[in-house]
Design goal:
The protein has 240 residues and is mainly α. The chain has helices at residues 3-23, 30-48, 77-104, 109-142, 149-180, 191-215, 218-239.
């Protein structure tokens, strides 16, 4: 294996370690962050000179944070939902890189791993996120007399959007299963799923969550957080 190939593999491994540590709310050691930045800079320079560059090389943007911010706890349910939104957008970005990778390289082992990771996230964490909002947050908001009337129809529409997202996901999930098996699907139907998720997240982050944060008291926050924690514990047990 040539020097470039070795550096590319090292970067992929370091990226994976970084992602797993962030997901588990652990601090990223400075030596790993520093090595990642050096390799990323080197690969960017090589790419500018015409070297091949895949989606895995772009998983960490320039100027990345070396120390992960603490993840919100279940005592901060809105913060936790916002963090889920960040991961949703991150996986949508990965979907776009995967589509480009498939067109340029094919369904190699790297693409297969990415497809499996994306599918697992949306089928497990994505479903729990929808339930958090529909079962806990949205009904509570609509029951508040001081929740703005102008936003009540928006909340109802958000639940309907969940059904639309789930419907588009079924087609996309089938395509990802093909990629996991080393096959390139005829067309990776990610566009409606990705664009709908981005618009959905923006509406909730900008319009709904700020109001929820103002209305929620400590007791209700704890109640919502406990329900979210229980749901994840149940999902974890069912998937083990």
């Amino acid at each position: 294996m040539n020097e470039y190939g070795q550096q590319r593999i090292l970067l992929i491994v370091i990226n994976k370690v970084h992602d797993e540590m962030v997901e588990n709310n652990r601090t990223v050691p400075a030596r790993i962050g520093g090595a990642m930045m050096k390799l990323a800079d080197l690969l960017r320079r090589r790419c500018q000179m015409g070297f091949h560059y895949t989606f895995a090389c772009a998983t960490r943007p320039q100027g990345m944070k070396l120390i992960a911010e603490p993840a919100p706890s279940f005592d901060d349910p809105i913060g936790l939902l916002r963090a889920c939104h960040e991961r949703i957008i991150s996986h949508c970005d990965m979907l776009e890189r995967l589509a480009e990778h498939l067109s340029q390289v094919g369904a190699d082992s790297e693409a297969q791993q990415a497809a499996a990771r994306i599918r697992r996230y949306f089928e497990i964490s994505g479903a729990a996120h929808h339930a958090d909002e529909e079962v806990q947050l949205f009904p509570w908001l609509l029951a508040q007399a001081n929740f703005p009337d102008i936003l009540r129809s928006s909340v109802a529409n958000l639940a309907a959007q969940h059904r639309q997202l789930e419907a588009t996901w079924q087609t996309l999930a089938a395509d990802l299963v093909q990629v996991e098996a080393g096959q390139v699907p005829h067309l990776l139907l990610m566009v409606p799923f990705v664009s709908m998720n981005r618009a959905h997240v923006a509406l909730e982050n900008d319009e709904i969550f700020p109001i929820a944060e103002k209305l929620l008291d400590l007791s209700t926050m704890r109640s919502l957080g406990m329900a979210m924690a229980a749901r994840r514990a149940l999902v974890k047990n069912e998937t083990q």
